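Researcher: Please translate sequence to structure tokens.
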Amino acid sequence: MLNEFKNFIAKGNVMDMAVGIIMGAAFTAIVTSMVSDLLNPIIGLFMGGVDFSNMYINLSGEDYASLSAAQEAGAATFNYGLFINAVINFLIVAFVVFLLVKGVNKIKEEAIKKEKKAEAAKPPADIVLLTEIRDLLKKKK
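Model: Translation complete:
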């Protein structure tokens, strides 16, 4: 059973998936920072200084200066600004993943084309076999 597990782990798909998950987590942290630290301030500037991360609806009926103050007080809040940030993060990550997949697919297509050209340049197997037979017959004479 242990050997089966080792064989399973050693297969390329499992390791590729693990690397992909780790890289995805690291990439998500970068995108989250880019959205919250770079894009949202620019978007807020064009929207009159609006900060999405501090947009919420207070469901408790009391007044709080910010979302963090309401959360510290334990008030029920509807945090639609954080949801907007999450949507922006998702759209950016999805677009970048799309670009990466598109690039990888292009590279794969080019490799397949080269492989097909190399196959087309080779003579058919029966011709190769007949040539070898001819050459062997010439040596025996």
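Researcher: Any highlights?
Model: The mean pLDDT is 83.
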